[in-house]
Amino acid sequence: MNKRAVILLSGGLDSATVLAIAGSEGFDCYTMSFDYGQRHRCELEAAGRIAAALGAVKHNTVKIDLRQWGGSALTDDALAVPDAEDSHGIPITYVPARNLIFLSFATAWAEVLGARDIFIGVNSVDYSGYPDCRPKFIESFQETARLGTCAVDEGWHYSINAPLQNLSKAEIIRRGVALGVDYGLTTSCYNPDSEGRSCGKCASCSLRIAGFREAGVPDPTRYHR
Amino acid sequence: MNKRAVILLSGGLDSATVLAIAGSEGFDCYTMSFDYGQRHRCELEAAGRIAAALGAVKHNTVKIDLRQWGGSALTDDALAVPDAEDSHGIPITYVPARNLIFLSFATAWAEVLGARDIFIGVNSVDYSGYPDCRPKFIESFQETARLGTCAVDEGWHYSINAPLQNLSKAEIIRRGVALGVDYGLTTSCYNPDSEGRSCGKCASCSLRIAGFREAGVPDPTRYHR
């Protein structure tokens, strides 16, 4: 029997690549998405398509409500998603403690599945400024997860795998293309229209557009402006 | 303006005492409970009553579904809640990564509220064997929360307060009585009947009964057997 891994899958380019990488390493992949009240809910449908296309054993959409306290342009309609050039410091699209919550749920599911590996598509190169994407946070979470679960008494630990941590967006795209990822299934936009077409202007779109250009790979994204 | 704190409130004896302690320290208290699919949902009503009685500014019940993967007698109807004497090692009532998930949500809410203090009723003396109640986990979480939020860039940290960590159940009860906690509002049982009456036999009931006896305080709990 293959080893199991839980893969955090957003429906975007990065986490789709992570799923392909985990699969290529021989893991049976259990994918997890979050319906958290995000503005860009079309990513949830994308996540389901990606999980199926890349052969996940089971795909789980966890419903939580981060909109009840807001605090981010992605979870509060009163806050607008800025164009990429407006960003400085920690962006308004940062969702408080989001990856902390996502990784905590992944740890819970992993514990029940008997999985010791968790994969997440955080990245430090084409860098968003989100504190919960940095290596020090990921390392610290790994230790906290060990101490807060059966792992500590049983003498093992979770591995929080972040295989994109040191790759540029172009390198991520080249890696995914080599592994057969269909990026036409993915969506990265923070501010898509009702048909799921991307804005082409937000920070996430800008990084994605530049990545395809630099990788020399045709951009399969549908834009609405 | 008083400082704000987020208090994890289960509806049980310990967290009610924690809320009273936080209030006595001058915090404006924002209480948070979780409807996670637990067998003992009557604790949610208790939490609301306790929050009101002890003057919480706002009480928030967060709905999450830990029943979708089970793995605990509290979240899987196929697993029975054992009587206290059956327990050894990490008990079957341990819910995988529960406090990790609860603290992660508390961190998210605290970040939006501008609160730097989080209170949790974990305890090492009358000890359940749950890994996510131990001081090393709490300390590690505190550092992970700092690294995964705005705190790291702004140069401060969350304080995860566990004021019951080194108290016996009897000491907790005496402390709460001194602070005016009405323990008749609380419920600790893992296996209550449909009217919210306690079983008197599970590990949680056994600790509670012994605590009232040792504290010399009349036990206000309603039992069904």
Automatic annotation (TrEMBL), chains A, B:
Binds 1 zinc ion per subunit. SUPFAM superfamilies: Adenine nucleotide alpha hydrolases-like. Pathway: Purine metabolism; 7-cyano-7-deazaguanine biosynthesis. Its EC number is 6.3.4.20. It is an enzyme of class 6 (ligase). GO terms for biological process: tRNA queuosine(34) biosynthetic process. ATP binds at residues 9-19. It catalyses: 7-carboxy-7-carbaguanine + NH4(+) + 2 ATP = 7-cyano-7-carbaguanine + 2 AMP + 2 diphosphate + 2 H(+). Pfam families: QueC. Its cofactor is Zn(2+). Keywords: ATP-binding, Ligase, Metal-binding, Nucleotide-binding, Queuosine biosynthesis, Zinc. GO terms for molecular function: ATP binding; ligase activity, forming carbon-nitrogen bonds; zinc ion binding. Zn(2+) binds at residues 189, 199, 202, 205. InterPro entries: QueC, Rossmann-like_a/b/a_fold. Belongs to the QueC family. HAMAP family: QueC. Catalyzes the ATP-dependent conversion of 7-carboxy-7-deazaguanine (CDG) to 7-cyano-7-deazaguanine (preQ(0)). This is 7-cyano-7-deazaguanine synthase. It comes from Victivallis vadensis.
